[in-house]
């Protein structure tokens, strides 16, 4: 049931074209709640689910009655990548909405001077990426390196890490993380 509720919520949110954070803000719940539900890692209370659905303009009946795509989508147009975070750093996810993949693939865009935040990130799993355009400073633990187009990184995500665009132009990265963190 967790996976189906999560997949349904992600489908609703991506159809609205909003981020997890935006839906959570509208509903008055922590953004981590949306992430945990969509990832199938928690089953929401009826009250929490109702608040999220009210924020999305859906009733419980509508939520559970729409046809959930069961056939796996294999190919994705650029406009089908779900924006899961926007602003100076944009994350667009491949395959958002199915809630069934154990691999998360992101198309990341960093505006000049932008970063993943002052606080180093840590989470379970592994992640890697390839710089497609621009220059990205990657810090993993005590190591820091500036990577340019064609260069890549791969590390265990339990090591504190951070990303920052140190170039004058937009930096584009294609990354993968397992298990998904958003």
Overview of the molecule:
- The protein has 182 residues and is of the alpha+beta class.
- Helices cover 26% and strands 30% of the residues.
- It has 5 helices and 9 strands; from the N terminus they run αααααβββββββββ.
- The protein has helices at 2-16, 20-27, 31-38, 46-56, 60-65, and strands at residues 82-85, 89-94, 104-110, 126-133, 135-140, 143-148, 152-156, 161-165, 171-178.
- It has a 6-stranded antiparallel β-sheet, with no helix packed on it. A 3-stranded antiparallel β-sheet has the order 6-5-8, with no helix packed on it.
- β5 and β6 (143-148) form a beta hairpin.
- α2 packs across α3.
- The model has no long low-confidence stretch (mean pLDDT 87).
Key attributes of the depicted protein:
182 residues, alpha+beta, three-stranded antiparallel sheet, 5 helices, elongated
Return the average pLDDT rounded to an integer. Answer: 87
Helical amount among residues, as a percent range? 25-40%
Determine the N-to-C terminus distance.
19 Å
Strand order of the largest sheet: 1-2-3-9-4-7
The counted number of beta strands is 9
Radius of gyration: 17 Å
Largest sheet: 6 strands, antiparallel
Q: What order do the SSEs take from the amino end to the carboxyl end, as H and E?
A: HHHHHEEEEEEEEE
Low-confidence stretches: none
Structural class: alpha+beta
Please work out how many helical segments DSSP would assign: 5
Query: Strand share of the residues?
Result: 25-35%
- State the assembly state of the protein chains: single chain
User: Looking at the structure, what is the overall shape?
Assistant: elongated
